[in-house]
């Protein structure tokens, strides 16, 4: 799999490039900022781009702005945004702009080789990967409006588990998980349609409500 990345820290950029190569990914371009990445992939888009959330010239939102530009120019390229912190508001905006083939992880998660490799492959297959820090927030907040099983389904969905994996974890059936998801979408007023990843939007809307 071919990967390009943008990271303003030369040390982390070098370490990430080395890690990707150790995991048998081909690094096609490594830039220090968003414009450098866009210029570097213009003639030869990779399968996935990895972006630091905070880069020059835009600061805190530069990675997200670059992600939106990549998606607009190259809709088939997967996108992974890495951040030092959770930035759940920006993550919500990212998923609304890029509803599939996208991921958002705290940088510490890169240290887990198996998880990092799996996340990249899931993104390449049009999946959505959210950091488990978001799942922990869901577990910690008061579940106003959601039942305990619904909150557990939402927490597990936040880690990227599909219906079957959630059902196995909860020792229940796929149909039961789907019923809980339908109820969650209704309670959180998540729009239907293929243009939104409803599970991730539910996760982020739930977090927005708790932080309001």
CATH class of the largest domain: Alpha Beta
- What is the topology, as strand order, of the major beta sheet? 2-1-3-4-5-6
Please report the total strand number as a whole number: 6
Q: What series of H and E elements makes up the topology?
A: EHEHEHEHEHEHHHHH
| Continuous helix count | 10
Largest sheet: 6 strands, parallel
Count of separate structural domains: 2
State the low-pLDDT regions, or none: none
**Class based on secondary structure composition and strand pairing:** alpha/beta
Instruction: Report, as a whole number of angstroms, the end-to-end distance.
Output: 40 Å
CATH homologous superfamily assignment of the largest domain: Response regulator
Overall form: globular
Q: What portion of residues belong to β-strands?
A: 5-15%
> What's the CATH topology label of the largest domain?
Rossmann fold
Give the radius of gyration: 17 Å
Mean pLDDT over the residues: 87
What does this structure look like?
The chain is an alpha/beta fold and 212 residues long. It folds into 2 domains: 2-130, Rossmann fold; 134-211, Orthogonal Bundle (Arc Repressor Mutant, subunit A). The chain is built from 10 helices and 6 strands; from the N terminus they run βαβαβαβαβαβααααα. The protein has helices at residues 10-22, 34-41, 62-73, 88-97, 113-124, 132-140, 148-158, 163-170, 174-187, 198-211; strands spanning 2-6, 26-31, 48-52, 78-83, 102-106, 128-130. It has a 6-stranded parallel β-sheet with strand order 2-1-3-4-5-6, with helices on both faces. β5 (102-106), α5 and β6 (128-130) form a beta-alpha-beta unit. α3 runs parallel beside α4 (88-97), α6 runs antiparallel to α7 (148-158) and α7 crosses α9. The longest helix has 14 residues, at 174-187. The radius of gyration is 17 Å and the shape is globular. 40% of the residues are buried.
């Amino acid at each position: 799999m071919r990967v390009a990345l943008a990271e303003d820290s030369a040390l982390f950029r070098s370490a990430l490039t080395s890690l990707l190569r150790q995991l048998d990914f081909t690094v096609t371009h490594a830039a220090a900022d968003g414009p450098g990445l866009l210029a570097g992939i213009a003639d030869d888009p990779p399968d996935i781009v990895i972006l630091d959330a905070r880069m020059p010239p835009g600061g805190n939102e530069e990675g997200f702005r670059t992600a939106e530009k990549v998606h607009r120019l190259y809709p088939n390229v997967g996108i992974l945004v890495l951040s030092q912190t959770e930035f759940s508001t920006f993550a919500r905006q990212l998923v609304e702009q890029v509803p599939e083939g996208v991921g958002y992880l705290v940088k510490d998660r890169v240290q887990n080789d198996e998880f990092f490799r799996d996340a990249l492959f899931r993104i390449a297959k049009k999946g959505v990967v959210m950091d488990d820090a978001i799942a922990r927030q869901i577990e910690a907040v008061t579940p106003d409006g959601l039942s305990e099983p619904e909150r557990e389904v939402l927490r597990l969905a936040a880690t990227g588990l599909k219906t079957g994996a959630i059902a196995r974890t909860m020792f229940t059936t796929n149909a039961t998980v789907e019923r809980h998801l339908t109820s969650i979408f209704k309670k959180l007023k998540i729009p239907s349609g293929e243009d939104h990843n409803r599970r991730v939007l539910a996760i982020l809307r739930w977090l927005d409500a708790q932080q309001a």
